[in-house]
Amino acid sequence: MWIDRDIERLLLQRARTRPVVVLTGARQTGKTSLVRRLFAEHAFVTLDLPSEAEQAETDPGSFLARHPPPVIVDEVQYAPGLFRHLKTVVDRDRQPGAFVLTGSQPMTLMRSVSDSLAGRADIVELEPLSFAEAKAARPELVPEEFLVRGGFPELYGDPTIDARGYLQSYLATYLERDVRQLLNVSSLRDYERFLRIAALRSAQLLNRADLARDVGISGSTAAAWLSVLEASHQLVLLEPWYGNPTRSLVKRPKLYIRDTGLAAFLCGVFDADALRSSPLAGPLWETLACAEFRRTQLNRRGGWDLHFWNDRSREADFVLHRGGRFRLADAKWTERPRRRDADTLRKVGAVLPAGSVDGMAVVCRAPNRYPLGDGVEALPLEALATSEEWH
Phi and psi at residue 16, in whole multiples of 5°? Predict the structure, then answer.
C-alpha cells in the first residue's frame, strides 16, 4: 500500500532545477521507495551491495559508465569517493534531475556533498510520517495510537505488523549498522542505555552533565554520542529564542527524540492504554507536537524558524519566527484545555514586539478547534497538520 508523502511536490520541484538532488533521513523513513516512485524513468542502483559500493568508491568512472544518468544511487554514503567524480560529470552536463541520491548517514554524506557538490546539489530531508499522512492510510487512527506506533511508513502500509517487535528490530539494526560505522563505541549496551535515558528526557532542557552521570560516561563521551544521535536523525536539539534582550532566557537547547514511536518504546510505553496512564504522556505529547511542527516546515519549506521560550516567569514550548512575525504554541496532554492553560503563552506574547504575534495555540487532544480567549485557540493535532497558517 502506497502512502502519499507531503514532501513529494518539493522533491519534484528540486529535481527540475538542480542536477543533483540528495534525499537524506533516518533509516526506514521511505527514502528509497519514494524516489523510485517519483523518478520511475531513472535507472536504479544501490550501494548496499558491496560490489557496487566498491566500484563506486575505487573506480567511479567505470561505475558511472555502467550507470549513466538519469540514475538513482541509493545509500550513496558508502562511496564518498564517488562525489568528486560526480562533480566532473555534472559540470560537463548540468541536466536537471540527472542524479537522485539517497543516504541515511549524513555525517559522511553531508561532508561529501559540501566538499564536492556545493552549488550543484539540493538537499531534502525526509522525516517519518506525519499524523495526517498516516491517517490518510488509516482513517480510524487516533493521535494516541499514532504517538506510540510512530511514523515509520511500513507500520501503516501493513497494519498487521507488531509495532513493538518492529521497533526492537529497528533499534538493533541502528545500533549495529549506524552506530558502529559512525562512532567507535566499545560497548553498544552502554550506547543503548544512553539512548533510553535520552528518550526519558525528551521534551526537557538538555543537561549533558546529568545525562553523562546517569549513564556512567564522561561528559566528552556524552557530547560525542549526542552528536551521533543528531547526525543519524534520531534526535533533534531545539534551540531557545534569543531575539529578545531578556537576560534571564535559558541558553540550553531542549532535547527531542524525532520519532515518538521509538521514544515511547525506549520509555517502556507500548500501547495507547499504557500511554494514557503514564506520567510520561505530557512529554511524549510535546515530542509529537515538535515532530509535527518540524515536518510541516521541512515538507513544505514554510520558512518558519522553530525555537522555544523559557525564562524565569514565561515559557512557550514552541516559538515560530519568520521575518519579524511570531506564532506561539504549547503542547498539552488534555482533551479540553481551558483559558488558564494558555496563560504562559499570553505572557510571552506580551513581551514580544507589539503586533508581531500572528497566532497562539494550545496543541491538544480536543476533537475540534475552539477559542481560549485573547487570540489563543485550542488546536487538535489533526488541525495542526492541515492548517495553512501553521505551515
Answer: -80, -10
Burial environment of residue 243 by CB neighbours within 10 A (0 to 12, 13 to 18, 19 or more): middle
Give tens-digit pLDDT for 278-315. 999 999 999 999 999 998 887 766 678 999 999 878 89
Instruction: Find the domain containing 61 and state its range.
Output: 8-125
Last residue of a domain, one of 105, 125, 145: 125
Kindly state whether residues 259 and 386 are assigned to the same domain.
Answer: yes
Separation CA 74–CA 76 (nearest Å): 5
Of 306, 302, 268, residue with least CA distance to 286: 306
Q: Are residues 234 and 321 in the same domain?
A: yes
139-163: per-residue pLDDT in tens? 999 999 999 999 999 999 998 999 9
Domain count, the chain: 2
What predicted TM-score, i.e. pTM, was given to this entire model?
0.92
Neighbours of 200 (CB within 10 A): 16
